[in-house]
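Moderator note: this is an archived Q&A kept for reference. The question asked for a predicted structure of one protein chain; the sequence and the answer are reproduced below.
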Amino acid sequence: MIDYNSLNRILIIRLSSLGDILLATPLVRSLKKKHPHILIDFLLREEYSDIYKYNPYINKLFAYKRDNETPEEIMSIKYDLILDLQNNIRSAGIRKKIKSERVTIFNKRTLDKLLLVKFKINRLKEAKQIPVRYAEVLDNFDLDDEGLELFIENKTRTISKHKNRYIGFAPGSRHFTKMWPEDYYITIGKKLNEAGYSIILFGGKDDRELCKRMSNEIPGSMDLSNDDDLLMTAVNMKECLALVCSDSGLMHTACAVKVPVLAFYGSTVREFGFTPFRNKNLILENNTLSCRPCSHIGRESCPKKHFKCILEITPELAFNGLKNLINS
């Protein structure tokens, strides 16, 4: 059992990626609010530092750089507790370099994910969402009733108020089998434009070309993709009535700034736990297929060659679902 009164300083390790780190924000907030005397340090990869840059519950933010060097300062600190939410070879190597009284490790349920993907044996039917599972690394600890959060500080939006008629699109993903087709986005974008909405395209540096092409096809749309400026993306996203997106980091970003999300789930499924957390949402997925899930993170192509998990989620289905989401 953890004696919280005896804890003075703890370290949370979650190196990547965008969505996974955002999903840790309820744990950080809830822990600090319940035990304000505890100093919480956080270690992540430097490209994700904006997630906690202005978070008031963090004592010290450490950035793990791509040269694989653990920050020297962190190795000079003795922690009462380390929470390893990454739980991989790299985080294990980091833990060995840091002095601590105790370490607890997130259960990734790797075997259960493998059984579901490879053999369709589903032992994750009752699995909780990832933020709740993160909290289970602690004894006798429950999250508060709030969701994800992202502190933006004084970032100024680059779009003007438009009678609250913006709809955001975040079409990109690292994995092809998570992405709704470009022409589907263009079709629904044109329908929304005709209905009086303005489309804003969001994405990082890997999505620039995709967003540019889509913006050229959707009348009146704005391409606000950028070179991975998360806080600028978030402050503009807050002006949207909803975000249409893949199962991606920007989906969780929208949840962190309390924007409703309509999300497409293709090769992945809800059971993995990476669903919108305590935020208004609608998930569209094709539950008629026996081949889902084919991956727990996504793939570069459909192993069955038909890609029905995404292609059968039509623009009409998405348009009607989005209307219901906005109006509910």
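Archived answer notes: The two ends are 44 Å apart (CA to CA).
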